[in-house]
Write a structure and sequence with these properties.
Elements lengths: L2 H8 L2 H10 L18 E4 L7 E4 L7 E3 L13 H8 L6
Antiparallel strand pairs: 1-2, 2-3
Amino acid sequence: MHLTEVVHIASDLERAQIFLQTHNILRKTPPNCPTCERAMNEIKSADRHDKVIYRCPSHKSRKMSIRAGSILSRSRLSLSDFTFGAYRPQAE
């Protein structure tokens, strides 16, 4: 992957999220609610740093970060910054 591709991916939060999910850094499927075991929904949340959270469809107050359970769970880096930081140039 070339630097221009990384810049394109990291310039958009949604593209960065999809890229990190594709590379198994973030989970690909929503987790189950710890209360009712139903699959949580991915929803937009303007007040969150990543702009997306998981929320239980039955227990609306049950929310979970998209970073939960990943190496980014305690990181203050944005998803875009992490994508840039994980980039390693390939030898040509």
